[in-house]
Amino acid sequence: MISSQPGAPAIEPISIRRPLRRDFVWGVSTSSYQIEGAAQVDGRGPSIWDGFCREPGRIANGDTGDQACDHYHRYREDIALMQSIGVNAYRFSTAWPRVLPKGRGAANEAGLAFYDRLVDGLLEAHIEPWLCLYHWDLPQALQDLGGWTNRDSADWFADYARLIAGRLGDRVKRFATFNEPSVFTIFGYSAGGQPPGTKELESFYATIHHVNLAHGAAVDVLRGVAGASIGVIHNLQPARPAHPTPADGKAAAILDDIWNRAFPDPQIIGDYPASLRAGIDLHRREGDMERICRPIDWLGVNHYSPIYAKAEGASPLGFAWAEVPADAPRSPIGWQVDPEAFRDTLLDAHDRYGLPIYVTENGAGAAEKLDAAGGVNDVERIDYLSRYIEAMREAAEKGADVRGYFVWSLLDNFEWGAGYTNRFGLVFVDYATQKRIPKASARWYAATIKAHAAQATS
To answer: Which of 387, 381, 362, 383 minimizes the C-alpha distance to 427?
Structure first.
């Protein structure tokens, strides 16, 4: 168990009533670019984020993921942290440019060997590896060929999946194809805030369709792994109108289709939302929907807060992003706190898709520093997590088939456009020294997991 910091308050675990399952999965999540570092080490090729971070004004303070949490060299220490918290699963992503520096062609043995070591270390610690193939770090060499706007990207991704499955599939049995495709497509190809930083509507629609094709192709590859349990991870957040007007209501409906439906609907139900079909049809070919809609075993749900839209006639997509209502409760970084929205999202996902659900990301960000005692008493994060876990329990009580919960994140890390200003970790990272210091929330989560285990066996 994690030892307490000097002067730390007593940590009361959440009392989780039935009906969480006896085999409920408690985990933590990370992603490759956000924690690994070692960007120029052992043959890793550049990703689209390496170059994007060097464009002036893109990332807070000019931060990059070059070093991040140096997980590439410190993974054993990080596994020990997971073990001390008591999680039984770890969701991570493999870095495509680390194993295929040019995105295709010759594999990089040193990169594959790193994931061998990581997976073996997890299994030795009795922590199940949950492997996500893509968490936004496309090899730059493939971006130079058009990236996700190129229909060939589906074949590139299938080949990458084949490499990872062939190397790690004897030990890894939980696979996800993509993490949050709605986020990297809308911000990368419509809003311009992520790589490649473009605002081209036709490219946006092409990317949506090609990513969906890539998902289906990878599912077919992963079916060749004996015992594999295959899923996909989507960021599902209710889209709400900024004002109670018909125009803003229509804007919110468009955002809902793009953010919440453009990927899970074709992947699981077999068709796109009606509002997107005209744009998608420019890139759809006969048989594509059958290639996309392949049977999967579970749905990963990432959720933080509701999102808001307002009417914007000049916007090619028909909406503009809107601010959180002024009177809404917020986390320290300004995201709305609304556990009821989380409960309802889980119920909606259960009803719409009919798959077992794992909450693969949920957490609260803050700008934190060590206190005088050398720790972090993150009571707001504990409050957030306890309220959201209770909302998840309520969803399960009402019938949602929720089977696991992963906190974002194990470690403070590189938070994309925010750089290192936002901290989501259960563990504080001193980026200058790479020292890891468990926060009060880490001790709270450990106590909660232990309390649930005792309840499950009683």
So the answer is: 381
The count of other CB atoms within 10 Å of the CB of residue 106 is: 9
CA distance linking residue 235 with residue 301, whole number of Å: 6
Look at the chain and report how many structural domains it folds into: 1
Give long-range contacts, CB 8 A cutoff, 24+ apart: 55-64: 55/197, 58/197, 58/417, 59/416, 59/417, 59/418, 59/419, 60/417, 60/418, 60/419, 60/420, 60/421, 61/419, 61/420, 61/421, 62/419, 63/414, 63/419, 63/420, 64/39, 64/414
Q: Which of 39-43, 442-446, 453-457 has the lowest mean pLDDT?
A: 453-457
CB–CB of 306/341 below 8 Å? yes
The gap from C-alpha 273 to its chain's centroid, in whole angstroms, comes to: 23
Specify whether the CB–CB gap between 138 and 147 falls below 8 A: yes
* Region of poorest pLDDT, from 46-50, 78-82, 311-315, 324-328: 311-315
- Residue among 247, 151, 136 nearest 193 (CA): 136
Q: Is 361 a catalytic residue?
A: yes
The predicted pLDDT at position 458 comes to 73
Q: What is the spatial distance between Cα 82 and Cα 217, in angstroms, rounded to a whole number?
A: 33
Given the residues 36, 180, 368, 415, the one annotated as active site: 180
Q: Is residue 19 part of a domain?
A: no
The model carries a pTM of: 0.96
Q: Give the pLDDT confidence score for residue 12 in this predicted structure.
A: 65
pLDDT interval class at 6 (50, 70, 90): very low
Q: How far apart are CA 81 and CA 216, in angstroms?
A: 35
Question: CB neighbours (10 Å) of residue 100?
Answer: 24
pLDDT of residue 19: 63
> How confident is the model at residue 454, as a pLDDT?
86
361, 368, 394, 415: the catalytic one is 361
Domain ranges, residue 351: 25-457
Q: Closest by alpha carbon to 6, among 376, 367, 368?
A: 376
69 inside domain: yes
What CATH number does the domain containing 199 carry?
A: 3.20.20.80
Q: Which of 440, 433, 369 is nearest to 74 (CA)?
A: 433
180 is catalytic: yes
Stated as kind and residue range, the H or E segment containing 165 is helix 153-168
User: Do the domain assignments include residue 169?
Assistant: yes
Q: Is residue 368 part of a domain?
A: yes
